[in-house]
Amino acid sequence: xxxxxxxxxxxxxxxxxxxxxxxxxxxxxxxxxxxxxxxxxxxxxxxxxxxxxxxxxxxxxxxxxxxxxxxxxxxxxxxxxxxxxxxxxxxxxxxxxxxxxxxxxxxxxxxxxxxxxxxxxxxxxxxxxxxxxxxxxxxxxxxxxxxxxxxxxxxxxxxxxxxxxxxxxxxxxxxxxxxxxxxxxxxxxxxxxxxxxxxxxxxxxxxxxxxxxxxx
Length: 216
Fold this sequence. Notes:
Layout: E1 5-8, H1 13-25, E2 30-33, H2 39-42, E3 52-55, E4 58-61, H3 63-73, H4 84-114, H5 125-146, H6 159-171, H7 175-183, H8 185-194, H9 198-201
Parallel strand pairs: 1-2
Antiparallel strand pairs: 1-3, 3-4
Helix pairs in contact: 1-3, 1-6, 4-5, 4-6, 5-7, 5-8
């Protein structure tokens, strides 16, 4: 079978998520490292967001859709549960992380460090201080979710965990994020445990955000 080609940057949390799915399932794949807003991405995603997938003559965008396709197209182990309640819980946590937690942890907090709108280019302390209550609150929700079993869903490692781990990796690279994660003791243990997985260690990105290309 043709190897899936993942087009994006491993520095992107969502590109890394898709690569982790491949690693978990033992799928041989090609990662085509590409800057943000590159023509290769716009050729598949109408808004130029990464990652995108090319698999033979089939193309697909949006990380969750790509992960679901890969999980269905290749043999076990499966990262999306088939049991209805576990499947629903996986969807629940993926939706919450993608619509709320990513926006708080990455697009607001971390971007205040890596893409600040300050005059001197330094961290935007005003944004950081304003977002910290929400960041700590959301850390608390995740902390309680993993307290009993060490997973977001049931007693198994699912796409819900894969979808979260690269975000935790990024948020702990800044001081307040690292402090908040350390204070959420169940979540901190969860992170350290799953950060030892081969799928995580083999996809650790270089430092810094993805490079930006000239808009198409």
